[in-house]
Structure formats: structure tokens, C-alpha cells
Amino acid sequence: xxxxxxxxxxxxxxxxxxILTIFSSFGQTYFIALFGSEIRETFSLSHGEFGTIYMVxxxxxxxxxxxxxxxxxxxxxxxxxxxxxxxxxxxCLGMSMVSSVWMLVIVIFGLRLFGQGMMxxxxxxxxxxxxxAERGRAVSITSMGFQIGSGVLPLVMxxxxxxxxxxxxxxxxxxxxxxxxxxxxxxxxxxxxIPRGQLPATESNSHIKQWxxxxxxxDPLFWVMITGVLAPAFIGTAVFFHQTHISxxxxxxxxxxxxxxxxxxxxxxxxxxxxGLLIDRFSARQLLPTFLIPLGLGNLVLGLADSPLAIVIYMxxxxxxxxxxxxxxxxxxxxxxxxxHLGAVRSLIMAAMVIxxxxxxxxxxxxxxxxIGFELQLVWMGVYCLVTAILMYPVxxxxxxxx
Length: 403
Hints:
Blueprint: H1 2-9, H2 11-23, H3 29-32, H4 36-43, H5 47-68, H6 77-97, H7 101-130, H8 135-164, H9 166-189, H10 213-217, H11 220-241, H12 243-250, H13 254-282, H14 292-304, H15 309-337, H16 342-369, H17 374-402
């Protein structure tokens, strides 16, 4: 009941953040990949050539995000969101008119920077800054937009492409951004929210230092946390990118893997909400040692077992880790480093996660090419997750002592 009252009293801000995360889909890998065949055919690109173009655009967007992400610290959220939405709509329109490989690189750069990068960044910064006692719930509800977008928009767009073609589909995406998403987000988030209520018991007597971006980079604990934070982005992207390869080496049908992905989406939503409640009760840093354990176990199962049940178990455990991390990564940074420079601080993490998501498919694909099987890589990644989870325990104690 408390959660329902919270949603009712904060509907405008939560809905604004939810729309931001939903329409970040236009710059997410799973959405752009829907048009991969058409793009490669148009420009006579091989899989490797298109992958290289995509990686270059993505890495450039990550580098830019470190610089542009701090703008949220100086201007109102609604103002930044307005211009970012317009920029994303222009990138969508650019994709509909792309006529050369160089233009394709620029368009992918725009989609990744303003879609996956800035739309997600603005939503999480707003929730982290506007909420204190209810920060976990706010982040968990807003992050559900990622799952809604990945579950609904690709299915809709496949039908749209069949009806009007791939270029016209991007014109439609631009129109949705300009005439629906942009005004809705601006109006909903135009009124800034002032945090109110008591902090969790673990924070109530603390005086949180307001860290600058430079101070965060000099903090040893930040680099230990990053070793864990980047794992879901690297591993998740690699597994989904190589799902066809997995079906071939395991002898599973593609329908089995596609159906199990829906389980991951449902589990992600459930554990996003649950972790939001736990964060509000115990603090984000207390959950830090937990989020990699399910993913580590899931990787071991997927790497070692050949039964079709293995992919189901993996997707369920992946959903648990993904759900916890979606909420945790939105609530952890303002709790640990304050909210004054949150835009600049979080842009570092967001850029690093974008780089990890870009490198995951490439690095694992290269290892496959040199003879290191993906099943063995999954076992390595599973062990890495479990070892890193153990390292998070002393980090949690050190953060609690510092605060």
C-alpha cells in the first residue's frame, strides 16, 4: 500500500523518468540490431564491417558522454531532457536518410549518445537527486522502462518495417520522439521535486561529502566497485549477441532461447521492484555484494550444462542480477558520492558501461575465432563474478565506515 501511495503522490516525476527509459530504446543495441540486415545490404557490409562501424560509433559516444553528461549538474532536468530528445529525434531522422558509411558512423554515434547514453543518464540522475528516503523505489520504477522498451518496441517495429520499410520506420521513430515523447517528458519533469522524508537508518546520521568527478577518479574504492559494475554490461551483451552461436553449440532451438529471454525480462522487473524496497530499508551499499552472485552462478550453469533447462536457469538468474543492478546502480552513486556533482560522476559510470557493452561481443567473438570456446568463456566469466562479489564485502564495510 505504501508503494501505491508513493506512486500516486509522485506520478508525474516517475512517469517522466519511465518515458525517458522507454524511449532510450531508439539508441539501444537490441533496437538498432533490428535493422542490421537492411543496413548491411544497403551498404554491402559484412558482419564484421558493420560490427566495427557500430563499435566505433559506440566508443565515440562513450567518450563524449563523460564530457556532456555533467550538463545535468548545471541546468534543469526538463531543459536538458528537451534538447536531448530533439537530438535523438534528429539522429532517428538521420538514420532514415543515411547515404554513406561515414554518415552511418555519425548517425550511430548520435543514436548511442542521446539514446542509450543521455536518455538513461538523465532519468537516473533525476531519480537519484530528487529522492532520498524513497530513492530505491523511484529508481526501480523508472528502470522498468528499459524492460518495457525491450519487450514491446522490437515486436511493434518488426511489423512496422514489414508495412512501410526500414527507412520510413526511422521517420516514424523521429515523429514519436518529437510529437509524443519530448513534450510529455518536458511537461512532466518541468516541476523540480525537492527530496523529503528520512533517509534509511544506515544513512540518517551521516554527512555525505559532495565528491567531484576528479575526486571520484582518485578514490580507490571507486575502481574496485567498477570491476563489478561493468560485469553485467559486458556479460549480458556478449551472451545476447552470441545467442545464435549458443543455440548451435548446445543443439538448442532458437525458439527456446527467445522464449527464455521473456523470463529474464519478467524476473528483471520483479527484482528491480524488490531491490528498490530493500535499498530504501537498508541502503544501496548493503546490496553491493549480492548482485553478481546470481549472474555468476548462471554463467557456470550455461557454460557447463547441455540440458535445455540450463538456458532457462541462466535467464532467470540473469534477470535477478539485472533487476538488482538496474536499481542498485541508480541509487548507489548519490548515496556514496552525494548529489551535487551527480551528473558528472554518473557520466563516468555510464560511459564505462557503454564501453563494456561495446567490447563484450567483440572480445568474446575474437576469443572464439582464436579457438577459445564460448562455453569455457562463460565459466571464466562466472568465476569472475563470484570472486568479484566476495571483494564487494570489504568495500561495503569501508563505505559504511567512511560515512
